[in-house]
Amino acid sequence: MADHHSDSRNNPDPDRRQESRFAGFKRSMLYPTFLLGLFATVSAGLLVSGNILTKDAIAEREREDLQALLAEVIPGELYDNNLLESTVAFTHSNGEQATAYRATREGEPVAVAFPISGMGYSGLISMLVGIDHNGKILGVRVISHTETPGLGDKIEARRSDWIFGFDGLPKDSSDNTSLKIKGDGGTFDQLTGATITSRTVVSTVRDGLMFFDKTSDVLLGHTVRDNATFHADIDHEE
Amino acid sequence: METRYSTIIRDGIWNNNVALGQMLALCPLLAVTGTATSGLGMGLATTSVLLGSSLIVSLFRNIIAPEVRLPIFVLIIASLVTLVGMVMNAWVHELYKVLGLFIPLIVTNCAILGRAEAFASKNRALPAVVDALAMGAGFTLILVLLGGVREIIGSGTLFANASLLLGESLSFLEMTLIHDYAGFLLFVLPPGAFIALGFIMAGKRWIDARHTSGLTLPAASDS
Known about the structure:
The structure holds two protein chains of two kinds.
Chain A lengths: L1 H9 L2 H15 L2 H44 L13 E5 L5 E9 L2 E12 L4 E9 L4 E8 L50 H25 L9 E3 L7
Parallel strand pairs in A: 1-6
Antiparallel strand pairs in A: 1-2, 2-3, 3-4, 4-5
Helix pairs in contact in A: 1-2
Chain B lengths: L4 H11 L10 H7 L3 H24 L9 H23 L1 H7 L10 H9 L6 H31 L1 E2 L3 H5 L8 E2 L8 H4 L1 H27 L7
Antiparallel strand pairs in B: 1-2
C-alpha cells in the first residue's frame, strides 16, 4: 500500500485525483466484494481455458487407458474391429450404467469385454472381464480397488500372476461349483492373507460368467444391433 | 528492507522446513510416500502450485483487501491446483493415476496457504518466488527421503517405475537395492510412514542440537 501513496504524490494532478478516487473506493465496503468477484471471474476464466486446452489430451489418454486395458482381456489377434466403437450399453441391477465392448472378426462376433465389480475387504473392486463367444474366459484385470497394499493388491496383474489364473477357464465353470476359492471348497487358489479379497474377485467373475450366459446373444450382437440398450441383472449369490 | 536470500533458502530447506520445522502438510506427506517416485512427483506438483500462488499473491498484495485475503488466497490456490491436475492428467498421465487422488488435496495443504499469508503477502515478487522454491524444495526433499526410506525397507527398491511415471529420461534412477527381498509390509502401510517420519524428525533435531553446541565455542554469529 505504501507504494501507491508515494506514486500518487509524484504524479500530476488528474492522475492524483484518479488515484485518490481509487483509494476512496478501496476503503469502501464495496471494494472487498468487487475484488472477490474479480478474482472469482478471472479464476473461472482461467479454468475454462485450461479445460479447453487439456480436454482433448485427457480424453485421448483415457481412450488409450481403456484400449490398453481391453487389449489385456481380449488378445488383439482375435479381432479386427475397433472395440471402442462397437459397444453395448447395459444397466446393472444396482442401476449403474455400464458398457460392454464387442470384438468381431470379419463381422462375426468373437468375444466381449464388460466391467464387473464386487465389494472386497475394504471397498469396491472394479474389474474388466473378457469372454469369448463360447463362454471361455480370455482374461480378467482389476481396474481399481482399495485392498491392503502388500496383501490384497496382489490381485493386480503387475504385482502377481494370480489374476492370470482365470485365463482360459472354460464355460462349464460358471455353474457355481468349481469356480470358488479352495477355502470355500472350490478349485481356485486364494491369495495368502487376502481370503476375502480373493473370494470377492472369484465370485464376481463367476457372477460375470453367469451374466454372460444369460445375455450372450445380446452382448455378442446376435439379437440386438450395435449401441442398443438393454437391462440385465448381475446376480450376486453369497 | 534488506532481503537475505540465503536466509530464505536456508529457512525453506532446513530451519523452517514445511514438514520438519512447521509440522505442516503431514497428510500428503504420510499418504503418498509409499515410494520415492510418488514422493518426488507430489513434491514437484506441490512446488509448482506453491510457486504460482506465492508469485500471484505477492504481485497482487497491494490491492488485496485484508478482509477478503483468505478467500482470495484459497481461490488462487484452488484454481492453480485444478490447472496442475488437468495438465498432469493430460501430459503425465501415469503419474496422475498414482497421485490423482492426492492432487486435489494440495488445496488443503496448509503449507501453501501458510506461505501466502506469512510471506508472499508481505514481500516483493522475487523474495516470494525464492521462498516458494526453497519451501517447495524442502518439502520435496522430505517427501523423497521418506518415500525412499519406506521403499527401501518396504520393498527393497528405490525410485521404482520412475521412468513410467515421470518420463523415460529418469530411468537411470530406478534401482533394486535388495534382490529377492520379501518386503517389509509395515513400511508400505501408513504406520510405516509415521514411524519413519518420527525418526527423520528426531534426526533433524539431533543434527540441529549438535550443530548449535558445536558452534557455541568458535563462533556465536549464527543465530
